[in-house]
């Protein structure tokens, strides 16, 4: 080719290294190449707004604009920074052989903080932040911006334990610190470590020249990773990692991960296929994650800045959060705190013919005070499926259970063996059960097993629905919040307390958190 290839580059040290690498490879093939420094999009004039051309990449749009304007022929990018949808008219011309794809942590003094509850790690990547917090949930992650050189300087200027970098970036400019640890457990960004050359689609001569640089194995792997990313519809705002590789037997593997920002929710997938039958791995891997809660998780990430429309007065677990419909932007917190009492050994050493539990908290308090092997409980009666499950797993038997205290009391009145019960309860437990029993000449020996502390707080005014799981939840909520909302209740006892204050009260079919979530989903359909 007699034409001089104009290679656009930004002026950072890493960008220049990448540009010069491509320049040397093209020159080795007999092409003439000239580096063209490109400053900023503000100095360039376009006939169309950037969004009309699909130019979205923070680190790539300057060069994209220059190429569309005809100022350069090709551009070189860290492939992980390139949006999965290229601007109109621009295409992938080559992918160079992949470098080190791993993330590494640079640390200042020693790595002992990894075994400690306290630790401060710096990174500007949500993906790295989420995976770090998933592994070290008590650590603190601080933001880290700037080019590679400046980020390393900040590590030593600040009181941080370490900072996370792409290994390839540090290696390419010879800046890898002495104290580093390879984070082999952390999935990299899709296409991390790969260099991508882009050109104009209609410039066939330039594309043919660049095609000679393409490394087929790298191209195959990073294409799968980017298809995984595109199928999840994630970008810089979503913590997504992916890695594909081909082994000696020509088996292609793709690993993918999706997390929320604080790392408390994590969905993974891993698929394999023979080379030649691997084309759908990226899409299939993403669909696997989407089908197992990924769709909900992506919506949560997208809705992070939106108003809360449902609030739960009990902290929802990550799996429970994923059960909520996409249109539910929920927040949750524990509105009551449970503190078990130390139950007198004199009480627990005695044999008890009939024992009553109306909550898991009471069972756990008894077990915290004495080993189950030392307890002599002949008949055990309880309220709630989870309480029954805990008793069966620990004591091995449940004489009878009901879904609410009133029904259990009525059963005892009719079927109890004897005229006396030992009732383990909390300080805020309702009087309904002991009242019914005593009215029917059944003696109740009440033992306060735990104390409930109301710890509610003011919730966002945007929340139109409140999830309640006990009368104490309702009482705690009322201390700082209004009642012009829908109350979704776990059972009839909770609903009775809510009806005294709320106009609209809905009751779950069965007394479980999941059933309350079904109530909410019925009102907030996707």
Automatic annotation (TrEMBL):
Gene Ontology CC terms: cytoplasm
Top-rank taxon, per record: Bacteria
Molecular functions (GO terms): hydroxymethylbilane synthase activity; uroporphyrinogen-III synthase activity
Reaction equation(s) it catalyzes: 4 porphobilinogen + H2O = hydroxymethylbilane + 4 NH4(+)
Domain Porphobilinogen deaminase C-terminal: 220-290
GO biological process: one example: heme biosynthetic process
Cofactor(s) demanded: dipyrromethane
Domain Porphobilinogen deaminase N-terminal, first and last residues per copy: 5-207
Main enzyme class: transferase
Swiss-Prot/TrEMBL keywords: Porphyrin biosynthesis, Transferase
Segments forming domain Tetrapyrrole biosynthesis uroporphyrinogen III synthase: 351-517
EC number per UniProt: 2.5.1.61
Pathway connected to this protein: Porphyrin-containing compound metabolism; protoporphyrin-IX biosynthesis; coproporphyrinogen-III from 5-aminolevulinate: step 2/4
InterPro entries on file: 4pyrrol_syn_uPrphyn_synt_sf, 4pyrrol_synth_uPrphyn_synth, HemC, Porphobilin_deaminase_cofac_BS, Porphobilin_deaminase_N, Porphobilinogen_deaminase_C, Porphobilinogen_deaminase_C_sf
Pfam families registered for this protein in UniProt: HEM4, Porphobil_deam, Porphobil_deamC
Function field: Tetrapolymerization of the monopyrrole PBG into the hydroxymethylbilane pre-uroporphyrinogen in several discrete steps.
Family of the protein in this entry: Belongs to the HMBS family.
Summary of subunit composition and partner proteins: Monomer.
Name of the featured protein: Hydroxymethylbilane synthase
